[in-house]
Amino acid sequence: MPYILIVEDEAAIADTLVYALQAEGFTTCWLGLGGVALERLAGEPFDLVILDVGLPDIGGFEVCKRLRRFSEVPVIFLTARSEEIDRVVGLEIGADDYVVKPFSPREVAARVKAILKRTAPRESAASAPSGPFQVDSERVQIHYHGQLLSLTRHEFRLLQNLLAQPERVFSREQLLDGLGVAADVGYERSIDSHVKSLRAKLRQVAAAAEPIQTHRGLGYSYSPRHA
After folding, report:
1. What InterPro entries would the database entry show (predicted)?
2. Chain segment 11-35, per-residue pLDDT in tens
3. Segments making up each domain of the chain, as ranges
4. Is 213 helix (H, G, I), strand (E, B) or coil?
């Protein structure tokens, strides 16, 4: 059964989440402090983290930033903040979804199931070449001109999806969905930040190449001719 970590300092909220998730067959662990959660995450394999933004010791955004230094486990933020900028920041620092309080515990459980389904390893060949790229889906690695790229989980999935269909123009919404981020979150512009970071890493290997092409008003594509 998937193992879900709940990081929430309000016992009443945590209890409702534990009940809803266990009713769906998930195993849960509840912690009330961000620092303690990071220690557990560093030494224990969880399948997904539900993370409150307003923790008493370390803010949820900071917890996520530190988590992304050593893990790409999916994260759902819980918060009382409904402003767009907070949602955008949450997604850009590596979250997979963002739920505003008050919320339905059953909806959160449904979102957990959807994210785990989207982020599950796809059945594909262990290693597939695409021009100067070598994609190893089993090891979650991509080599570019023979060099291993240091990619986040989002960057890996973004590049993997582009490489799978050369010259196809993907909209931001399609790419966001491919990352395992809920499409209804509605912040497709966060894709731009991931593309910018990915391009910088590709240029470190081949400075003059532009394998990821921008199509104004449409989205992005992978062009083997420019790789």
Report:
1. CheY-like_superfamily, OmpR/PhoB-type_DNA-bd, Sig_transdc_resp-reg_C-effctor, Sig_transdc_resp-reg_receiver, WalR-like, WH-like_DNA-bd_sf
2. 999 999 999 999 999 999 999 999 9
3. 3-119, 127-226
4. strand
